[in-house]
């Protein structure tokens, strides 16, 4: 079972006589899907091992390069979203001032 982490429990149960899919799932719950000490490949590039030193990268299943690229992309998206929020807030404030008649820019 540890030799085939990519296979589903049903596929393994079909290969192993006397084992049900539920039994395979229970064994995997007890021992894990992969052998201890083996590092899975990156989910994005599938070429390098997952960056084990970073808890967040390990949770995301990304290597160091893909993790850094993802963080750069997220940072740029956050900046764009913040600028859009500010423009929308300023537009609402201008509309409110115009409704009250306190002057226009």
Largest sheet: none
The ordered string of helix (H) and strand (E) elements is HHHH
Radius of gyration: 25 Å
Number of separate structural domains: 2
Structural class: mainly alpha
Percent strand equals under 5%
Low-confidence stretches: none
How many angstroms separate the termini?
Answer: 70 Å
User: What oligomeric state do these chains adopt?
Assistant: single chain
Secondary structure tally: strands:
0
Mean pLDDT: 89
Q: How much helix is in the residues? A: 55-70%
User: What is the global morphology?
Assistant: elongated
**Count the helices. How many?**
4
Give a quick rundown of the structure.
The chain has 105 residues and is mostly helical. It has 4 helices and no strands. It has 2 domains: 38 residues, no CATH class; 61 residues, no CATH class.
């Amino acid at each position: 079972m540890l030799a085939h982490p990519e296979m589903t429990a049903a596929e393994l149960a079909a290969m192993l006589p006397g084992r049900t899919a539920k039994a395979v799932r229970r064994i995997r719950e007890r021992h894990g899907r992969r052998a201890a000490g083996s590092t899975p490949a990156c989910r994005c590039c599938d070429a390098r091992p997952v960056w084990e030193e970073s808890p967040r990268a390990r949770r995301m299943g990304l290597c160091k390069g893909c993790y850094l690229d993802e963080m750069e992309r997220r940072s740029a998206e956050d900046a764009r979203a913040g600028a859009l929020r500010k423009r929308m807030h300023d537009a609402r404030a201008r509309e409110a001032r115009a409704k009250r008649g306190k002057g226009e820019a």
